[in-house]
Amino acid sequence: MDRPISDSEIKSRRNRRLMVWGGSIAAVVAVVWLTLGAMETSVKRSDLTFATPDRGTISVTVSGAGQVAPAYEEIITSPIASRIEEVFLTSGDSVVAGTPIMRLDLLSTEAELSRLADRIAMEEHEVHRQELNNASHLSDLRMQAEVKEMTLKRLEVELRNERYLDSIGSGTGDRVRQAELAVNTGRLELDQLRQLIDNETRVADAAVGVKQLERSIAARNLDEMRRTLDNARIVAPRRGTLTWINDHIGEQVSEGTRLAVISDLGHFKVKGTMPDAYASKVGVGARASVVIGKKELEGTLSNLTPLSENGVISFEVSLDQDADPVLRSGLKTDIYVQCGIVDETIRLPRGSYYSGPGSYKMFVADGDRLNVRDIELGDANHQWVEVRSGLREGETVVVSDLKDLLNNKTLKIK
């Protein structure tokens, strides 16, 4: 027989059902929450590199590669075609100005020098002979002019006499006209002879000048040959270190062949290259930083090749401290040439994340999470990168490589 259920029991049963449903829902929520938490991408804090942007000045630079070289290198070449007879030094030897380096075979040069000396002696003899011939010829012409002048004076006296006789009736007009003709003819002949003397004098002077020029050319050739002979005695032109020498005794060398290289290994410069796209941004006199390992040296762009070769231009940097102990010939360097200044800008320490001005996706820290943000980066030098937009001073940004995780809008830091 059924009996009615009391209100209290109904309420109790209802509460138990609500508790069961509530527990089930809570369990489901917990499972979902745990599942989502397990699915969220996370990274270890120890694997991340953070940077905090600050505000300051950036000296904008363009980068290039370089190599340390001696401040000067003097290449000694053979002044003549000859043969190496003897070598006195080896690579690495220190030298001072005048130190003998090697001896060349100079027999043919000395013989040529003797021939030139003989030629000059002959040229001097030719000049002297030309001067004597000219003097003799001109002397004969002047003597003829003097005789012609005396003849003209005699004809003028005869003309005066004929005029006098004609005036007193003892002469004739024909005799006067004949005397006048003789005087005029004599004057023309004298003028012609004097002109001839002037012409012959100029011709003689020109002939002597030609001979003197030939002698002068021969003398210059002799002086040049003497200098060549002196240069063929190969000696060090200045203090330095012999960094290379042709020590092949007996080898035939032609004129201009490199024989030795002397370098100053106490002072250095840096030879560099950079992409020709930067050519318009830099110029001679620009400041430059040369980085060798952890050492940074300052200098000035002292030489810039205007021509591009294989897409690069060459330049040289004169160092402010060109005798720094870190410098060694042949060391590879990084070079940063200043091309502008950005004042009072937000900046980040430069790292491998930067590949040039443009837009970047980077993770910015927000508590224990990292959020992807679009950040506009601008110019840079080897220490700092300009932040144009997307970051505020004092925020924390990840500068390590997380390119593979950029599809995640958020990362959790473990």
What does this structure look like?
With 414 residues, this protein is an alpha+beta fold. The chain contains 3 helices and 20 strands. It has helices at 7-39, 107-167, 173-231; strands spanning 42-43, 50-51, 54-70, 73-77, 82-87, 94-95, 102-104, 240-245, 252-253, 258-263, 268-275, 287-292, 295-304, 312-319, 332-349, 358-366, 369-380, 384-389, 397-398, 410-413. The strands form 4 sheets. The chain has a 6-stranded antiparallel barrel with strand order 3-11-14-13-12-15. The longest helix has 61 residues, at 107-167. The chain is elongated, with a radius of gyration of 51 Å. The model is unreliable at 32-39 (pLDDT under 50).
Uncertain runs are: 32-39
Order of helices and strands: HEEEEEEEHHEEEEEEEEEEEEE
Percentage of residues assigned to helices:
25-40%
Shape: elongated
Strand proportion: 25-35%
Q: How large is the count of helical segments? A: 3
Give average pLDDT, whole number: 81
Strand order of the largest sheet: 3-11-14-13-12-15
- Major beta sheet summary: 6 strands, antiparallel, barrel
Rg (CA only): 51 Å
Taking the alpha carbons of the first and last residues, their distance comes to 66 Å
The total count of strands amounts to 20
Class derived from helix and strand content: alpha+beta
